[in-house]
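User: Study the fold:
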Amino acid sequence: MTQLSWQQRDAELLWHPYSSLTAPDPMRLVRGASGVRLELDDGAGGTVEAIDAMSSWWCMIHGYRNPVLDAAVKNQVDDFSHVMFGGLTHEPAIRLAERLVEITPAPLRHVFFADSGSVSIEVAIKIALQYQVARGNSGRNRMLTVRGGYHGDTFAPMSVCDPVNGMHSLFTGTLKEQVFGPRPPAGLDRAEDDPELQAWIAGITELAEKHADEIAGIIIEPVLQGTGGMYPYSPVCLRVLRELADRHGFLLILDEIATGFGRIGTLFASEYAGIDPDILCVGKAITGGYLTLAAMLCTTEVAHTVSNGPGGALMHGPTFMANPLACTVALASIELLLSQDWAARVASISAGLSAGLARAAELPVVKDVRVIGAVGVVQLDRPVDVPKVTAAALRRGVWVRPFRDLVYTMPPYISTDDDIATIGTAITAAVEEAG
């Protein structure tokens, strides 16, 4: 009997994200990883190396097998790997919470740990609803957001993702109907008096006023919408949303799961606008990609209002909340990031991506090329042929995972200038060959 390959065994058993079980995409078997490189099975008994231009879905900012993070996990295992967080606490969680409060916007003073970014959004929405009930506004049970957003794959986050062009349109009619405003006009550098921006401000203001008695909070990805299209917009929009929240008694929730920890050039994207949220969600890069963890931070006013309201507690409690291994490696990852001139490194990556992707803008199939911080995006005028583009980039030593009409990269911060140049060349050539 012929022995099945690992990929064949995978195809018989495993359902991968955003994929069909009956017509799956090709799978590459990872044999190892170090620094910014993956070692992939070549199908002939050997391996090939590829730069991970995705940072394993944006989280592996320090690269693979980082000695500092490896040591943090190993040391914590010697103490204990997990304890429940109900009735018990531990130093890793306390230290991490203290550090998060130190580095996030000043009004945020309280931390709730969650299993994943999506779950942190669930918690944030739940808090907004409990907050309004505690204030006697039980009719305020909807969220205000904008088109083009993406906040996760569980049900409450799905309800605030783009309802038409998002990945969850199949669930229309099942999800809570939220209040959606227009997508902000594209462009990070739009002036406040820009006509399109002024029209957006007027529209979102009118919508907030019309639904003020129904809205519990506003939720948005600040400055850069991620999975909704790698779409940058003006920080002026955030200032407008902060003003609307203050005027009408909404809570402002910023989803910084993708943008947090330096990805777009500031430690947190809210710094672009100079505003503070009532609730902040962070995840992905928080552990340097080692373990799943997210955090919801909120103000004292929010925390005390919920705690003193009906129920007397936040009604949420994941089994693996504040897992000690995850908290330990998260703290080590944050300290490693802040011990370096991370801003200069992100700026260097940004410059390298701008140079490396410039030629892609000249290709006939390319609609737009944009770079913000350590994010580079090539947008096509048609859906990407994902298997072909992936294979074409891989032949040039780079791993990418396109989606919709986008071929993009969010490389690890430890990528060298040569690595970034290789990524730019590979993406451009792959689009030219197979886009």
Remarks:
- The chain has two domains: 6-65+341-434, 69-339.
- The mean pLDDT is 95.
